[in-house]
Design goal:
The chain is mainly α. The protein is 42% helix and 0% strand. The protein contains two helices and no strands. The protein is globular and about 35 Å long. It starts with 13 loop residues before the first helix and ends in a 5-residue tail after the last helix. The mean pLDDT is 79.
């Protein structure tokens, strides 16, 4: 995180973030939503090597 520039750096592409499960603040406590989001990002880490 760069607080001065107000930016957060991530190792995912814009397309991967766009295709992620939609955020719904009313649904985040549901186990299914947490699993879906976790599975999505876990799989994307397997498909794309980390940027070093």
């Amino acid at each position: 995180m760069d607080h001065r520039e107000r930016k957060v750096h991530v190792d995912r592409t814009k397309e991967q973030i766009r295709n992620a499960p939609e955020y719904d603040p009313e649904d985040t406590d549901r186990e299914g939503h947490r699993r879906l989001t976790g599975d999505y990002y876990s799989e994307s880490y397997r498909l794309v090597p980390p940027i070093l």
